[in-house]
Design goal:
Distance between the termini: 51 Å
Number of helices: 9
Largest sheet: 6 strands, mixed
Strand order of the largest sheet: 1-3-2-6-9-11
Structural class: alpha/beta
CATH topology: Rossmann fold
Number of domains: 1
Radius of gyration: 18 Å
CATH superfamily: SGNH hydrolase
CATH architecture: 3-Layer(aba) Sandwich
CATH class: Alpha Beta
Length: 316
Amino acid sequence: MDMTSWRTSVTGAILAASIATMTAAQAASFAPLPAPGTPQQVAKAVAHSTSIRNVPSNLTPKLTQAGLVTFANTALGNKCFATCSWGKENAKPLVILFGDSHAYMWAPAVARAVLAAHGRLILYSSMGCVVAKVRTYGKWGNPNAYNTDCDKWRTRTIKKIQSKKPTLVLLAERTSDILSGPNTLVTDAAFRAGLATSMIEVKRSGAKVLMLGDNPPFANFVDPTGCVAQHPTAVQDCAAPKRPADVKWRDRHTVEAVIAAANGVSFFDSTKWICGKKTCSPIIGNMVAYRDWSHISPTYSAYLSKVIGEAMRGLY
């Protein structure tokens, strides 16, 4: 089986599982989210995370429920799947969170932070549609085609952002395993140029912009919670390296930081709030840190709301 066919089968299985768990989640009662941690508390928990050997007895959510706890299955998320809003209609500041499923991933943290500031948040997210203006290959339903739908969605959404004149726009995207063609990764040069273009266009709204740097993934689509379930007394056997040997699985948060600085955009280094010096533990404190191979859990995202709030302070 070639890489594209294998990727197709794996992503198809992931999507099917996500739909199944999402449906089950909607039928369940709202899952609780943890109280937010202070930056000091989060830093301490992250530093200790790589020393966790056994699954905590009070792990939240439980491993058997981790797949069911989607953001939409929380009181804060309340059936939010792509485009949603929080806060009163005319509340200020108006904040927009824009990007692919990683923007959705950060919604628990950002929504809490914006509501704490008595503002309004609008989420514009579309699965697989990165912020960078690059031509990508593969999409849900047809992984063997160029994703022109994302090109149209990105253009349309940036126009919406410009028209709304927000105070602050947050950008978030997956940066690993992005294809430009069959078995071909998007080059760093193309990614840099595409991200710079999108940043410039978003800044035309008059808003300040904050780039939420990408987080390291678990290579080869490894399910971290499934791994932990198989290694309950050796949690770190399931940890992901911050910088995988295979370039396919490396995130580009350092590239995002460089392009942000060059275009007058603020940058939030998410990796320092998720990973230790060399690895990223699937469990932080008593929380499931990653929901799947690429996304932090809504539980851990919500826990980071004060950290995100500090990064946003002074930008609105």
